[in-house]
Design goal:
This protein has about 500 residues and is an all-alpha fold. The protein is about 70% helix and about 0% strand.
Length: about 500
């Protein structure tokens, strides 16, 4: 005779595994949809390369990463004899994926007008991120100890507020009925943790209902930019290639973006592994970090342009009742789906307004984490890290308007030219700038003038060569005597003076 309690337990485990799979799968699909939409609609990048090369290549990292994390969970299950071991969730890192579109791929395409070269620059940047992550996986904890949390998480929180929060809000109001329905369902499920009728997962209902509304309103003529979807599917087999290495010289300028993104995911991986340990699943930190590093590196050789990372929320997946099946299914569906064209089809079908609330939710969570993890006294340092991202957001929006009007910034009135150049200087290298500015403020709050002076001096060195505050519209690095202006020297001098001021200070504790 069947035990009713066992049947209920199996049903509960099935729904938990299904919910976890949907959450992880749709998170990854959401990143791909937004990456594709930004490139196509903001920068007019060719859809063909995105759908048939970038997406399959990027999916390779998720495929291998989730398979490895599945194997690690099975190994831990066998070692401990427990049946409730939950695999670490892995997927595309949202902040850096969107950040790379706005800070690398988009600007590279505008500067070169060459879609193939832009794609290769994206691969080369991911390659540099992968190398940095492999190196830092061995001493990530050391970086975490010496760099203030406010600097590390503050620059990421700036992206959360502006690139993941504000820009998706525009997508919601572009299709306000669709966007608000999705926002209500996703926020109720993810922020309010409320149970929807029939225990339907909130994200799934938002996608289905939001997409249905989008197509109903679109075919009814109520959405101006509506395009009928294409249901074409074709094989998109990622091909191993080394040709992108030729674009490394053009990609070096993006190193100041690549390294901070690598640092952020490595430190995030350390924190997420510790979170999993506290929830009962004790994984080796180095196994988790090397997996995300190597899979990011591997993806670059197959056309990938976005890094993988362990996701925040292992304890939440565990509470759902998920084991290793949800990562296995996600990896297989992402990998196989990208090859047969299913992933590109899904990316083309799900409206941006439906997924925008997910990114806003992620952005809000990143901001909350930055203020929570940093000491209370460091909140001004976290906020200071936001400011370079503001400049980047303004440049993104202004660039679209000026490009559409075919206006060269040099044709603006003198005062506006100066303002545009200042915004450009503040925007270039904004991730590294935010990290260093936040660190300076955090050290000053802690009455540590010498580390603050060191950070200011690093700003001087980096700005001299354009790693931060590049004076060129493309954000390129340069030798200062070849920049064609004395501005790099003036910026570096300002930071040197600031460093000297800090060195002249003496804290009460003698630091």
């Amino acid at each position: 005779m069947t035990n009713p309690e066992n049947g209920a337990h199996r049903r509960s485990r099935f729904w938990g595994e299904t919910t976890a799979f949907l959450a992880l799968f749709l998170d990854n699909v959401g990143v791909l949809v937004f990456m594709s939409a930004i490139l196509m609609f903001t920068f007019n990048y060719p859809a063909e390369i995105i759908l048939k090369r970038m997406i399959p290549g990027t999916a390779i990292g998720v495929f291998f990463g989730d398979l490895v994390y599945t194997w690690l969970a099975v190994r831990l299950r066998r070692k401990t004899g427990r049946t409730d071991v939950t695999a670490m969730p892995l997927g595309l890192d949202t902040p850096s994926s969107i950040g790379l579109v706005y800070a690398v791929l988009g600007p590279a395409y505008i500067a070169t007008k060459n879609a193939e070269l832009t794609w290769q620059i994206g691969m080369a940047t991911l390659f540099m991120i992968g190398l940095a992550k492999v190196a830092m996986s061995f001493f990530g904890a050391w970086v975490q100890r010496i760099v203030p949390t406010a600097g590390i998480l503050g620059s990421l929180a700036g992206i959360g507020l502006l690139l993941l929060g504000f820009l998706p809000l525009l997508e919601i109001f572009n299709e306000v009925v669709v966007g608000m329905v999705a926002l209500g369902l996703i926020f109720a499920a993810l922020l309010g943790r409320m149970e929807l009728p029939g225990r339907i997962p909130g994200i799934l209902l938002a996608v289905v209902l939001g997409s249905a509304l989008h197509f109903a309103l679109g075919y009814g003529g109520y959405i101006p930019e509506f395009k009928a979807p294409s249901f074409e599917m074709s094989l998109c087999i990622p091909v191993f290639s080394l040709s992108f290495l030729k674009s490394l010289p053009q990609s070096i300028q993006y190193l100041p973006i690549a390294i901070p993104f690598a640092i952020l995911t490595i430190i995030g991986g350390i924190n997420n592994t510790e979170s999993a340990r506290l929830a009962g699943d004790d994984y080796r930190t180095r196994d988790i970090l090397l997996t995300e590093a190597v899979t990011s590196l591997v993806a670059s050789f197959f056309g990938g342009v976005a890094q993988t990372t362990p996701y925040i929320g292992h304890p939440a997946y565990k509470k759902m009742g998920a084991t290793h099946w949800y990562t296995l299914l996600t990896g297989l569906l992402i990998g196989i789906g990208s090859v047969v064209g299913l992933l590109s089809l899904i990316v083309g079908l799900i409206p941006r307004a439906v997924l925008a609330p997910i990114f806003i939710f992620i952005g809000l969570e990143i901001i909350r984490q930055a203020y929570r993890e940093a000491p209370d006294a460091h909140s001004p340092a976290v906020s200071m890290s936001f400011l370079p991202v503001v400049a980047n957001l303004v440049i993104i929006i202004l660039g679209q308007f000026l490009g559409a009007l075919e206006v060269n910034p040099n044709a603006l009135p003198a005062r506006l030219q100066t303002m545009f150049q200042t915004l450009t200087v503040l925007s270039n290298g904004f991730i590294l700038t935010g990290l260093l500015w936040g660190s300076v403020v955090a050290f000053l709050i802690d009455r540590k003038p010498r580390p603050a002076a060191l950070c200011a001096f690093l700003c001087a060195v980096f700005s001299l060569f354009g790693f931060i505050h590049s004076i060129l519209p493309t954000g390129e690095i340069y030798l200062p005597w070849e920049a064609g202006s004395n501005q790099p020297y003036m910026i570096a001098l300002a930071y040197v003076i600031l460093s000297a001021i800090f060195l002249s200070l003496k804290a009460e504790d003698g630091v």
